[in-house]
Automatic annotation (TrEMBL):
Organism listed in the record: Mucilaginibacter straminoryzae
Protein name: Acyl carrier protein phosphodiesterase
Amino acid sequence: MNFLSHYYFDRKTSDCYHVLGTVLPDLLKNADKHTSLHPEKLIHPDKNINSLIGGWKKHLEVDRHFHSSTFFKYHSHQLKLNLLPALEGSPVKPFFLGHVGIELILDNLLLTNNLVNAGDFYDQLNDCNEEVIYRFLSFAGMRNPEIFLSFFDGFKRSRYLFSYAESSQVAYALKRICMRVWQSPFTPEQEEQLTQLVAAYRLEVQPVFMEIFDLIQAALPTDSAA
């Protein structure tokens, strides 16, 4: 799941460090693809660092339920098939596009149906003290936490998740993600076609998209934040 979909399960939580922890695995991956941390079994005397660890564990649990669900397997496959006409000659792997695309569509639908507030999400991130984040990353084994903190500052300032409310920006976000792997993933004509195909599939998913959030919420521990 993408950032706002993870946030959905903790949108009522007042603990900013827990909220950050629920998206930190993906943020860290974007900041430094060579760093791989596994703090989920660690315990720290600082309650804020333990909140980050708890949020990290929640992220892993939500992703586990999501990626094993029939919803994800079906819709990522169907979206992949729908996007195939726009991928002729492109180096992008169709499976990758279907996987990432359905996650971005879910973020868009949460925003456009007023089920999450991107401003509230950014407020939570801004409330987190960078010194606490630095100590967490060092404790988890990251050698250069400054790399993440620099990326994190830019992520918060850009506030680009607001753009996910526009269907055309979902396809643009797909392109930007693909550019991390492939230098020139699409031609301008392919980009235009992708925009139309993603918007069309979004309309197909809209009537049923809450099924996956309800399924995951029911699978989470009853004391899990909601």
